[in-house]
Every structure is written in C-alpha cells, then in structure tokens.
Amino acid sequence: MTISLSANRRDADEVAMFHRPAGFFEDLQTVLVDLIELHLQAKQAHWNVVGMNFRDLHLQLDSIVDTAREASDTIAERMRALDAVPDGRSDTVVAATTVPALPAGLIGVRQMVQMITNRIYAVVGTMRTVHDGIDAADPSTADLLHGIIDALEKGAGCSNRRTAPPRPCHATLHGLRRDVR
Fold first, then answer.
1. Are 58 and 49 in contact (CB under 8 A)?
2. What is the pLDDT averaged over residues 95-112?
3. Calpha distance 129→124 (Å, rounded)
4. What mean pLDDT, rounded, does the chain reach?
5. N or C: which end of the chain has fewer CB within 10 A?
C-alpha cells in the first residue's frame, strides 16, 4: 500500500493569522465609536423629538437605533475575529467620535430630521474615508462596511424624505423593508 503525500501541503509554521497593515484596527475602532455614538444620539432624539407627526419620526429613530446598534456589534465582532480589542466604553466614544454633538433638550421634527440625517452621513463619511485601506487589506471586512453604509443611507433617505403625512421607513442591516402604513 502506497501513501501519496501532497506537494501542496504547507507546514503548520507557514500558516499565519491575518496581518493587519498600520492603521487597520484604528480605522475599524473609529467606525465602531461613530456607530455607537449614532446609536446613542438616535435614542436621545427618539426621546426628545416634538411636534406634528413626531410619532412617525419616533418610529424611524427606533429603526436607526437598531441599525446602528447591530452595525456596531458587527464591527466589534469582526475586530475580535481578527484578534483586535474593540473599545466601546463611554469615555472612549466621547473622546474619539467624529459625529457632531446633538444638542440637549426638546427638538422639533423638521430640525431633528436634519440633525439625524447629518449624523448618519457623518458616520457614512467615516466609513467611506477608511474603506479603501480596509478593502486593500481585507475585502471581507470591506463587505461588512458596504452593508452598513447601504443600511444607514437607506435610513437617512427615509428620514430625509419626510412630507406630510410621513410614513416610517425601516432600514436594517439586511436591507430596506417596505414602508409600514
């Protein structure tokens, strides 16, 4: 009996874990803190939006909260899968976020739509800024960014197209569900 040895088989010491380029995990950390900040600001907005048709925006803000929370968890879990240590502590988020601060107090529907849309685009801008470097190093992680960008932009589009009477849109990481009537 003859046993055939594969010439293609590598030695165990030739197999290496993912090697990140400089700045790779730092870029993912920036995305993470911006997503956490968006989640928190959208929840704050949810509690403090006032005015005509506030309930429809209230529901949309819940959807944005869910999308941002899911996305931050996706990024943090990806970081762990690549052996990085995500940091979502409140002190870290406050110190590192690039998202504009949300003012305290009650905010009217129209102004809140503009503010939240602006914050969504700020987070998307962060992801677009780091995308090419991440894509060059790890296309799988870049694919995650694509999905998150798509979901957030759909949420921003739903928020931004508010007309009387508005209908809530529900964006998720898995795509846009039909408008709820």
1. yes
2. 97
3. 9
4. 86
5. N
Residues 6 or more apart whose CB falls under 8 angstroms from that of 12 comprise: none
Burial of 10 (0-12, 13-18, 19+ CB in 10 A): exposed
Residue 158 has pLDDT above 80, yes or no: no
In the chain, the domains with their CATH numbers are 20-163 (1.20.1260.10)
pLDDT band of 161, cuts 50, 70, 90: low
* H runs (alpha helix) in the chain: 24-48, 54-81, 90-96, 109-137, 139-160
Cα 71 from Cα 41, distance rounded (Å):
15
Q: For Cα atoms 150, 94, 64, give the angle at the middle one, nearest 5 degrees.
A: 30
User: CA 116, CA 6: separation in Å to the nearest integer?
Assistant: 58
Neighbouring C-beta atoms of residue 31, cutoff 10 Å: 27
Can you read off the two tokens belonging to residue 144? 């995650």
